[in-house]
Structure formats: C-alpha cells, structure tokens
C-alpha cells in the first residue's frame, strides 16, 4: 500500500501569498497527475493560530528570516502565514481535492512549529499522520509539495524514521532557499538517509510497470 503526501499546497506558499515560494503553483499540476496512480492521498496543511510564535510579528524588534530560540529549539521567523480559517491557508483551488482522502493539520500549537507532517519540530507530539498510515498498512510514501527545504524535507526525513520507503518527487517541490543552496542541501540530506529522488513521470512509469491489478 502506498500513499502520496502532498505537503502544504496552500495559497500562502504560492506566488502572491504571505510566504510565497517561487513557482510554488507549478507543482499543483504534478500533484494532480500523480493522484490517480496511488492508493491513498494525504494532504498536510500548515494551520497556525493568529499569534503563532514562528511569526516575526510575535517577537518585538525581530524580522523575518532571523533565527530565535523557542523552547530550546532554533526557530526561523516567518511572516504571518497559514492562519487557521483564512484564505491563505486554503489548498490551491486547482488541486483535485476530490482525490484527497485525508487532510492533516499541523503547526496548531502556538509555542512550537511543525514543519513535518508527522511531528512537531521538537519531536514531542505526533500528528494523526503516522497513525493513519500505520492503520492503513502503508509501506511506501511519495512526498512532494512546499517548501522543499522546510516542510517537505522534515516530512520525508520523518517518513524514513517511521520505516516507510520514501520517494521524493523533485519536480513536485519548490523551496524557499533562504540561504542559497538550501534546497540542494536538503535534497542531499534526504538522499543521505535513503530517500529516493525522481521526477513524477519516472515514478508513474515505474509504478505502472510494477502494478499487478
Ligand atoms: C513552511 C515555513 C513555515 C513549509 C511552513 O510549508 O515549508 N515553511 N511554515
Ligand atoms: Zn508555518
């Protein structure tokens, strides 16, 4: 059983959004193309309360891109984004949401950020994603979305930790690149723990050849 994990395909990460990722909207078509080829589709949503501590606005005298300590963890400060119930937190309207089986919300705790779909950044609390995948006997996950160097990377690394065979769809991801090279480094970090990296066409092609039904 495999599952496609669509990471944070929300308006605030798209061009024009509060935390816009360059060409972020171009991955929506890739998601739509992959969905018919997998057994299960799960979408994560960054889902912050208004006063989330990852927002620079909550730290007097600090600006976006600076790193602060939050409960003993390094925290990059972001513009206010993906606030619960706002249009910026909605999934892109071109996404074929009919094919999404589950939506997992993360980053809901004001005091701690959660890049990964599985855990908060302190690995203190899990989301329902791990339980869901276990319960559904998922052994393989295909990960894509936004942003490569934050939520996609953390989600893929945790997927490996959960013992899932993990593939990153590189043309289905775009990154922030706060420091030049962050995106390339994060792909290398994922590969180093065993994440397979390929483009959507190759994944579809390979899955088609191994499919028995
Ligand atoms: C993300 C920064 C802050 C992401 C979420 O989806 O990659 N990045 N919150
Ligand atoms: Zn966030």
Which tags fit this structure?
213 residues, Rossmann fold, 5 helices, 23% helix, binds zinc ion
Explain what you see.
- By secondary structure, the protein is an alpha/beta fold.
- The protein has one domain (2-47, 89-212): Rossmann fold (3-Layer(aba) Sandwich), CATH 3.40.50.
- Helix content is 23%, strand content 22%.
- It has helices spanning 28-34, 129-135, 148-161, 182-192, 200-210, and strands at residues 2-7, 40-46, 67-70, 73-76, 102-106, 140-146, 165-174, 196-198.
- Strand 6 (140-146), helix 3 and strand 7 form a beta-alpha-beta unit.
- The chain is globular, with a radius of gyration of 16 Å.
- The structure holds pyrazine-2-carboxylic acid and zinc ion (ZN).
- Residues 8, 13, 46, 78, 115, 146-147, 150-151 line the site of pyrazine-2-carboxylic acid.
- The site of zinc ion (ZN) has 7 residues, from loops.
Describe the structure concisely:
With 213 residues, the chain is of the alpha/beta class.
Number of strands: 8
**Helix tally?**
5
Instruction: Estimate the strand proportion.
Output: 15-25%
Biggest sheet strand line-up: 5-2-1-6-7-8
Structural class: alpha/beta
**Could you tell me how far the N terminus lies from the C terminus, measured between alpha carbons in angstroms?**
13 Å
Radius of gyration: 16 Å
CATH-defined topology: Rossmann fold
């Amino acid at each position: 059983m495999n599952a496609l994990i669509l990471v944070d395909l929300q308006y605030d990460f798209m061009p024009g959004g509060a935390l816009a990722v360059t060409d972020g909207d171009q991955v929506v078509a890739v998601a739509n193309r992959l969905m018919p080829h997998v057994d299960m589709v799960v979408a994560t949503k960054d889902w912050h309360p208004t006063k989330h501590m990852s927002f620079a606005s909550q730290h007097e005298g600090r600006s976006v891109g600076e790193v602060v300590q939050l409960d003993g963890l390094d925290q990059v400060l972001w513009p206010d984004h993906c606030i619960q119930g706002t249009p910026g937190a909605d999934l892109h309207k071109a996404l074929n949401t009919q094919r999404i089986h589950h939506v997992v919300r993360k980053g809901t705790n004001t005091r701690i950020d959660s890049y990964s779909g599985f855990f908060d950044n302190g690995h203190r609390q899990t989301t329902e994603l791990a339980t869901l995948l276990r319960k559904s006997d998922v052994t393989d996950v295909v990960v894509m979305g936004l942003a490569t160097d934050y939520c996609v990377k953390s989600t893929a690394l945790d997927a490996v930790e959960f013992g899932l065979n993990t593939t990153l769809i590189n043309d289905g991801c775009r990154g922030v690149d706060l420091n030049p090279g962050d995106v390339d480094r994060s792909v290398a970090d994922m590969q180093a723990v065993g994440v397979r990296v390929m483009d959507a066409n190759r994944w579809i092609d390979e899955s088609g050849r191994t499919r028995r039904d």
